[in-house]
Specification:
This protein is an alpha/beta fold. The termini are far apart. Bound molecules: zinc ion.
Length: 397
């Protein structure tokens, strides 16, 4: 089992440490979105320098290119990307179910590659096999994300997610058994993924990882009875932690997380999938018992010139920054704010210099990482409520 220690508790909010084979994650923590094993516009050294503790990559994208097997041969995701710290992989479900012509069967999902149109299939088993090869410390179970928030569709998708979770758990345990048990247990190698000729049996005893861990994913959309049912089912499974998926809007999120995290066992970590673009979501998540967060929003906004400050988000391309020779955020200790002015960054964006995207991404990623770090400190120090009030009042006005 994944080792997770709680340090401070205050209602559902907690601080703690997730101990992964690649190091500790002090929670709550914002995890960098490294979809294709890279955080857009940032190097792994820059991610370390700005204070990031962990990254999350996407199985769907990595299987299409460069392929899970190649990453395994490179020693796993942390080594291949040179991140070398704690890593997560998302199952790929979210991306696949967002594709235009995906076909769902009980077996899995059939879809066309967005790169070359190849017909592919992903199943709970093949997602587990791919994640096992990619070798992140923490894997997400393959879940079915309903396309609409209609109750019946959502219930059907949730029930399928539960059946698929049982298959994910079985496959994960089989793969772990091979890893731990060595050569004699290798009666069948992982099936090829996503399609193609059968691969010869593999010797997995040289797998670079000693341990890999599985999170169940809680679904149920905006329906709190389904969320509760999904949390109860996930909690009944022998998994190491939980992802809370299918959350796209902050509306109702606090109530939903309150219900779900009161059901999930306290001694296992919880990851809120894909939320964190708006700082308030990080507060709502943390105070309702979520331990880690990931979101592509902060770096995506940065590339468009939309930058966080403690007084709210600004667009640095705006003409009013042309002659502004102050730092973007004087009390920020990131590379951008320590060394450059708003006028300079404005100039870089206006002239479409690549450096604009890099510096802006450093700042935005640092901002969300640090916001969550300060949430953690304030829970530990017993002043969460005042930190939250001061932050939100200043940020949202
Ligand atoms: Zn900064």
């Amino acid at each position: 089992m994944l080792k997770y220690d709680i340090i401070t508790k205050n209602g559902l909010a907690r601080t703690g440490v997730i101990h992964t084979p690649h190091g500790d994650i002090h929670t709550p923590a914002f995890v960098g979105a490294a979809t294709r094993a890279a955080v857009k516009a940032l190097t792994m050294q820059q991610m370390r320098d700005l204070g990031s503790q962990a990254i999350l990559a996407n199985t769907y994208h990595l299987v299409l290119t460069p392929g899970a097997e190649l990453i395994r041969n490179a020693g796993g995701l942390a080594e291949f990307s040179s991140w070398r710290g704690p890593t997560f992989t998302d199952s790929g479900g979210f991306q696949i179910f967002s594709l235009p012509d995906v076909k769902i069967t009980e077996q899995g999902a059939r879809f066309k590659s967005h790169i070359n149109g190849d017909k592919l299939e992903m199943t709970p088993e093949s997602s587990m096999q791919a994640q096992w090869s990619i070798g992140a410390d923490i894997h997400m179970a393959f879940d079915h994300l309903a396309k609409s928030d209609n109750y019946d569709d959502m219930k059907e998708a949730m029930e399928r997610t539960h059946r698929w979770l049982e298959r994910c758990v079985a496959e994960h345990q089989k793969l772990l058994g091979k890893m731990v048990g060595g050569r004699n247990m290798l009666s069948e190698g992982p099936k090829t993924w996503p399609s193609g000729p059968e691969r010869p049996e593999q010797d997995c005893s040289d797998h670079p990882k000693t341990e890999q861990y599985l999170y169940a994913v809680v679904q149920g959309g905006s329906f709190n009875d389904l969320r509760a049912e999904s949390a109860r089912f996930a909690a009944s499974q022998p998994v190491d932690g939980f992802g809370i998926g299918g959350v796209f809007t902050a509306d109702g999120m606090a109530e939903m997380l309150h219900i779900v995290n009161n059901i999930l066992p306290e001694n296992k970590p919880r990851h809120l999938l894909g939320m964190g673009q708006e700082p308030i979501d990080l507060f709502v998540g943390a105070e309702n018992g979520c331990d880690t967060f990931d979101c592509v929003g902060p770096t995506r906004m940065a590339r468009n010139g939309s930058l966080y400050t403690l007084d709210g988000r600004i667009n640095i391309k705006n003409a009013k920054y042309k002659n502004d020779f102050t730092p973007l955020m004087p009390d920020c200790d990131c590379e951008l704010c320590r060394n450059y002015t708003r006028a300079y960054l404005h100039h870089l964006f206006r002239t479409d210099e690549i450096t604009a995207k890099i510096l802006a991404s450093i700042h935005n990623e640092h901002f969300v990482v640090q916001t969550v770090d300060r949430i953690r400190d304030s829970i530990d120090n017993g002043n969460y409520d005042s930190y939250k009030q001061d932050f939100l009042q200043r940020y949202y006005g």
